[in-house]
Amino acid sequence: MAEVAPAPSEAGFTLVEMLIGLALTALIGVMLSQALSMTGSIAGVSARLTDDEAVQTVRDHLRRALSDVAGRRPDGTLPPFLGTADGVSAILPANRDVERAAEQRLDLRAVPGEAGLDLVESRRPVRGGDADDPVPERLLGRLVAVELRYFGSPAPKLAPQWLADWSRRDAHPALVKLRLTFPPSDRRRWPPLVIPVGVQP
């Protein structure tokens, strides 16, 4: 008995069907590649937003802290304010609204960290001129440089100017400028921050 040849529809893939299959496979590959690339981009944007939010939180915190520096006390004395190129020390007034029953000393410093400089803040209650050991808090890390400048008159009857440090006992600076520098590969950005001293927002 002679074998029956298969019908054309049962003869396997035709050239056209194979080309269509290859085209569909290539299209799926392109779509997967774009999806993976998009996922990486979204992760990068998310990380950048997290870094930007952390920087903005620190900027807002420093604005509040330095705008809260104590002015003249009822007895006419002026709490000390000491500023250097890499740190500032000032007195914050007692404030029942924020559960601060006594004056506090605010210290803001650049200190060596594990990967560059850390911007560190500490606060301690002031009692009769003595202070407890402060508990430092790292505000930002992995910094290349921290620079503080002070705007005010360096002595009575002299014109105000930007200074690298502040040591006047009879006056506070009008403004403090804080500049932070991140490593070149760091995506964080810090525009110069200028804060009025002792002026409530």
Describe the structure in your own words:
The protein is α+β, with helices and mostly antiparallel strands and 201 residues long. The protein has one domain (53-196). Helix content is 26%, strand content 31%. The chain contains one helix and ten strands, in the order αββββββββββ. The protein has one helix at residues 15-67; strands spanning 81-84, 87-92, 104-113, 116-127, 130-131, 137-143, 145-152, 161-163, 175-181, 193-196. Strands 1, 2, 3, 4, 5 and 6 form a six-stranded antiparallel β-sheet that branches. Strands 8-7-9-10 form a four-stranded antiparallel β-sheet, covered by helices on one side. Residues 41-46 have low confidence and may be disordered. This is General secretion pathway protein J.
Topology:
Layout: H1 15-67, E1 81-84, E2 87-92, E3 104-113, E4 116-127, E5 130-131, E6 137-143, E7 145-152, E8 161-163, E9 175-181, E10 193-196
Antiparallel strand pairs: 1-2, 2-3, 3-4, 4-5, 4-6, 7-8, 7-9, 9-10
Keywords: Membrane, Transmembrane, Transmembrane helix
Protein name: General secretion pathway protein J
Transmembrane segments: 12-32
Give the helix tally.
1
How large, in whole angstroms, is the Cα Rg?
Answer: 31 Å
State the major sheet. Answer: 6 strands, antiparallel
Shape type: elongated
Structural class: alpha+beta
What count of structural domains? 1
Terminal-residue CA separation? 103 Å
- Please give the share of residues in helix: 25-40%
The multimeric state of the shown protein is: single chain
Mean pLDDT, nearest integer?
83
- Weakly predicted, low-confidence segments: 41-46
Name the beta content range: 25-35%
How many E strands? Answer: 10
Give helix and strand order, one letter per element, not per position.
Answer: HEEEEEEEEEE
